Amino acid sequence: MKKLRIAITGATGLLGRNLLFEILKQQRNNLGSLEIFVLGRRSPGKSLRERIDEIINDDGRGYCGFTDSRESLESVRAMEMDLVEDKLRLSQEDYKELKSSLIDFFFHIAALTDFRSSEAVTEALYKTNVYGTKQILQLASNLNVKEFSYVGSAYSCGKASGDILPNQIDLRRQFRNPYEKTKAEAELLVREFSKTTNTKCRYFRPSTICG
What we know:
With 211 residues, the protein is of the alpha/beta class. The protein is 40% helix and 17% strand. It is globular and about 50 Å long.
């Protein structure tokens, strides 16, 4: 039986973890044919595997309706990587696993959100949001990905006013902070990628998340 294979960056964040929970919930009766590859960083003193297990146990079990979270954890594989490191610092073993078969859906959600404008923050934003997205696109181009989804930001339009069309983006406009500009540049990278690949690409621009 062919497995549904899904890759996600940013699954430790608010939006990413809820996407992870929703996939597990919808596939609850088909976990044996589901593989979710979570790509992300370890935190100080805690591996990515430990972070994901904790997130599912603490926040996801009730939402997904699992009485025993182990049934869902077996479908999730943690792959440590870092957006700002060369070749994502992804292990050869993990790379081979990703490349071994079709990835049905690849969600790139990971990003740095910081509205400050200091030199250090600006550098960190470009490394994570622009260079990191470039590296993820390079990874996707090396894999067999059916559909790639990029989560941008409603604020990538900068100081635009009036009606904003979904495909409207312009780096010449004025931005309020480096974060907005880096998200615009990252989205443009994805748009260029969509022109040079057979992979179906989607773009999402969520606004402020409350809750």
